TrEMBL record:
Listed InterPro entries: Formate_THF_ligase, P-loop_NTPase
Protein's GO biological process: one-carbon metabolic process
Any one GO MF annotation of this record: ATP binding
Gene3D superfamilies: Domain 2, N(10)-formyltetrahydrofolate synthetase
Name of protein: Tetrahydrofolate synthase
Highest rank taxon of the organism: Eukaryota
Pfam family, one: FTHFS
Lineage: Eukaryota, Metazoa, Ecdysozoa, Arthropoda, Hexapoda
UniProtKB keywords: ATP-binding, Ligase, Nucleotide-binding, One-carbon metabolism
Length: 198
């Protein structure tokens, strides 16, 4: 398994895919109020936005920091990504070329309430996360690039990013051990730095 970078990319990529499908499911099965309450829960009686949620509010043009001060319309705008399932660009990945995974149907369990859709698997090294890991200049640059990855379009044609899904921090945690290159040696004994898929 060499450096473990491909495993880290696979886990991060598929976590983002799973989160997107979970978000779609919850938006389809919940009313606005309960959905907002799940995204911004009261902890010890206090409701607070996280830093990633504050970034989303800013992108939406909502200049408020108190979760209780949002209007119903602003709560809906914040809570609903309204992902167009026919405009999802983010596939799951696996580290082998398995032709029978090139197109699959997900959501067939009865617990998914009939919300099935077609998707696909790509090979792990083709993930945009692998390119970001390979080309990022430092942790802050990688974090910004991960945050800005477009995973789908919403019903109005606007991009939905990893940051909109609240996933930037989790992706960074999974990738932290893969940031640094690994010192190895060639068959001739020459030192070589091996980093990422490319």
């Amino acid at each position: 398994h060499m450096t473990g970078d491909i495993h880290a990319v696979t886990a991060a990529n598929n976590l983002l895919a799973a989160q997107m499908d979970a978000r779609i499911f919850h938006e389809l099965t919940q009313k606005d109020g309960p959905l907002y309450d799940r995204l911004v829960p009261k902890i010890k009686g206090v409701r607070k936005f996280s830093s990633i949620q504050l970034r989303r509010l800013k992108r939406l043009g909502i200049d408020k920091t108190d979760p209780n001060s949002l209007t119903d319309e602003e709560k809906t705008k914040f809570a609903r990504l309204n992902i167009d399932t026919s405009k999802i660009m983010w596939n799951r990945v696996v580290d082998l070329n398995d032709r029978y995974l090139r197109k699959i149907t997900i959501g067939q369990s009865p617990t998914e309430k009939g919300f099935t859709r077609e998707t696909a698997f790509d090979i792990s090294v083709a993930s945009e996360i692998m390119a970001i890991l390979a080309l990022g200049t430092d942790v802050d640059d990688i974090k910004e690039r991960l945050a800005n990855m477009v995973v789908a379009l919403d019903r109005s044609g606007s991009p939905v990013t990893a940051d909109d899904l609240g996933m930037t921090g989790a992706l960074l945690v999974l990738l932290k051990d893969a940031f640094e290159p690994t010192l190895m040696q060639t068959l001739e004994g020459t030192p070589v730095l091996v980093h990422t898929g490319p």
